[in-house]
């Protein structure tokens, strides 16, 4: 509760984003047939991993594609639209089908029905398109607690408001098995249980948006004793914008039963029942200011408490709290081209025995993005 109070207090000192993010990363700009869309994000990372046993600095660095995506979008008479996006970057898991869904809008923007593969309607930062993220990487708490990002399923969505959306909503029934996967985590072919996920955003005043998200699902089959691994998560977020200032933040809390940690499994926690139970949480808060000449400095603080479950951060498996302070800037060369530079200063919490779990794992990231 203290974290939520602190988060809200920081927000109220500044001021919300007036963007309305669509179901996909890009919307069709016309009704004239198929439209090819996409973006590429070549990136350079430089890591500061301390020194080896001989005192030599460990500074691995590499060029790669963070994302390289291409797809087609379009509208079909009457009230039908389609969206297909592929990921080509091998680092991001490609080549693979990323999104593919059909949407029917018989009541305009108020009620829409969508079926296919799309992002889970959970979390503000997850549902911010990758090409619109204000920092190069998503927060650790989102990467761990909003996963799996994409699912096969059915969703009802819509919004209300004339000049601006006062209320928007999304409610989805999902396989709960992850991207391009119709089976359960252990390849059972029944997959009887489904995940439920939903998100509501309310904008009571111009420049203010308050969001809430919820997701619940079982993992694998129910065992002979009637128990099952499960995850239940909820999130609240706030977005404020005024005079070129932008402040955003989100708090996520969840109960995970069983070996289903986002980064890879149980941390050996004691449990009275068949499966161990983890109560994970974390938040991120970010402030930006955009100058008229296209420069946008950004500072972001985030923390994630895994409650003793194991996960990976920059290829380091750990079971302790991860704190990250990101400093950087975005520079918009034009409407289609953006440059981002981020420095991530990382500090970890204490181990279960009270020892400091600090790792040498700061990172400098540079990314160029072009949309088409």
Which oligomeric form is depicted?
Answer: single chain
Number of domains: 1
How far from one another are the termini?
43 Å
Main sheet properties: 16 strands, antiparallel, barrel
Shape: globular
Task: Please state the average pLDDT score.
Answer: 84
CA-atom Rg in angstroms: 21 Å
Number of E-type strands: 18
CATH-level-2 architecture: Beta Barrel
Unreliable spans: 1-21, 261-273
Structural class: mainly beta
β content, as a range? Answer: over 45%
Number of helix segments? 2
Q: Supply the CATH superfamily name.
A: Porin
CATH topology: Porin
| CATH class categorisation | Mainly Beta
Description:
- The chain is mainly beta and 372 residues long.
- The protein has a single domain, classed as Beta Barrel (Porin).
- The chain is built from 2 helices and 18 strands.
- The chain has helices at residues 2-12, 140-145, and strands at residues 35-48, 61-76, 80-87, 96-104, 112-119, 150-160, 167-174, 195-202, 208-219, 229-242, 245-257, 277-289, 295-305, 311-313, 316-318, 322-332, 337-348, 362-371.
- It has a 16-stranded antiparallel beta barrel with strand order 1-2-3-4-5-6-7-8-9-10-11-12-13-16-17-18.
- The termini are far apart.
- The model is unreliable at 1-21 and 261-273 (pLDDT under 50).
